[in-house]
Design goal:
globular, 0% helix, eight-stranded antiparallel beta sheet
Length: 236
Amino acid sequence: MALKHKAHKETLEVGTSAEWNDDHVADFSSSISLYEDFITPVITTKWDLTQNGAGVAAVITFQDHHSLVKIDSGANNTDWSAMRYEFNGAAGNMTYIDDNPIMTMAIWLDAYAATGNVTEFGLQNNAVAPFTANQDGAYFRIDGDALYAVTGTGAAETATDITPIGGIPEYGVYRIELTAALCNFYVDDMEVIAAGHTNNFPDSDLTMSFAARNDLGTTTDMYVDGVGLERRRYQG
């Protein structure tokens, strides 16, 4: 569907149908975009929250002069907390590899240690518990003070260490571009590919997912500043 705009004419000036133009096109058959800035509404309106143990439910908070979502793993070993984008008001998936999704995220890591802090963020299957091995998805993982680009089928995964020189950024912008033939990962620099995967792609439906886990008794706090998703609708 395209929205066409009329050409401007003076009074009594003749106009024709050919002068309608496509200078502003809203083509919902080829691309649909979502953007979340975590200001309003309340987080449970669009996001499904899950935790185990003493994991703390994600909340929208105002910190350092702007709004973010805080995901707190909890204080005990193996505790975790997660949030996943809902489908039609409930837990569920809302995209697929053939949508050619592009997901961009701004993540702030308040504090993290060389060991004990684990996070996952990106596109994952809603039906699988966070931090399950070989998850269906395309996502980032932080583990042991290293940053990984991950694609998984549910049975196997490819994980590439893409830790930047100087370490994981305290505040970083991350992007995933997933197609049926290639998955590119970016960190801060949206022109230079941090990793490009060509195998072990997800074969199930996906949603946007963020999770933080406590390993070795070290609490993991992750803040999500914003997230956007473009679904390019079967363009190959």
